[in-house]
Specification:
With 121 residues, the protein is an alpha/beta fold. The protein has one helix and eight strands, in the order ββββββββα.
Length: 121
């Protein structure tokens, strides 16, 4: 009733096993497992997809957050390939989770740089 595909991410944020996998807002699968890959130094995410949902082989996956501080889930964006993802396939195009702390620190760093630059003038 389902097939499995794998995706690798540099940062999964707070993604957990059993998290929803959605496309166009529709639940199409769930995260089956998350592990660390010692060869790629990335998080390996195994996704269980419902058989009724077919996606092109060049589909992309990104980790999103429901609302401002809601649960994290995987969003799929279908590609245009003629071939579909199949059991044991891999989603090659991924985008890691946006970590709020990283955004805040980057914003603060940029502001500090702006202030330092304006004081020199």
């Amino acid at each position: 009733k389902s097939y499995e595909v794998t995706a690798y991410f540099d940062n999964i944020g707070g993604l957990k096993a059993r998290a929803p996998v959605r496309s166009a807002g529709v639940l199409v699968g769930r995260v089956k497992s998350i592990s660390y890959d010692n060869d790629t130094f990335q998080a390996k995410v195994v996704i269980s997809m419902e058989n009724q949902f077919k996606f092109p082989a060049d589909t992309s996956a990104k980790i999103l957050t429901a609302g401002l501080i809601g649960e994290q889930y995987i969003g799929l964006q279908p590609g245009a390939d003629d071939k579909d993802l199949t059991n044991g396939g891999r989603i090659e195009f991924t985008q890691s989770a946006v970590v709020l702390e990283n955004l805040i620190s980057q914003f603060m760093f940029n502001k500090a740089e702006e202030n330092a630059g304006s004081k020199k003038e």
